[in-house]
Write a structure and sequence with these properties.
By secondary structure, the chain is an all-alpha fold. 89% of the residues lie in helices and 0% in strands.
Length: 130
């Protein structure tokens, strides 16, 4: 919780600073926003380590292996990267590019889940005797 509050504080400070500077120097304002994003992302990655350890333990204890959990984690990662990419594009005034990035992220997430969906389909076919 404390880590999140630090991230939120940096984000708010950067947003206010970028907002004040935006009229004078748009490039500097965008750079401040990007720097704050990178700092927050690095802190977030550190915060995710306990969850990553949990997924490893869950994979080992369940006997499912990484084949089932890996697509889920990768899909979540694609979603996060897509959100950040779209927000940065929109901040730079590139709304069409943001929408295309969103579409590409959606397609990538769907493709990432195909092996998992194939396994579910195979299991269903086994259950009905097909």
């Amino acid at each position: 919780m404390a880590e999140y509050l630090k991230i939120a504080g940096v984000a708010l400070l950067a947003a206010v600073l970028a907002g004040v500077l935006d009229k004078r120097d748009h490039a500097l304002a965008v750079s401040i926003g990007l720097l704050a994003c990178v700092m927050a992302l690095l802190a977030c990655i550190r915060s995710f380590q306990p969850a990553a350890r949990f997924f490893e333990e869950l994979s080992e204890l369940s006997g499912l292996g990484g084949g089932y959990l890996e697509p889920l984690v990768k899909t979540a990662g694609i979603g996060i990267v897509t959100q950040i990419t779209c927000a940065v594009c929109a901040d730079c005034g590139q709304n069409a590019l943001a929408k295309i990035a969103e579409l590409c992220g959606t397609v990538a997430a769907l493709c990432m889940t195909l092996p998992l969906l194939r396994s579910v389909l195979d299991l269903l076919q086994e259950m009905v005797g097909g």
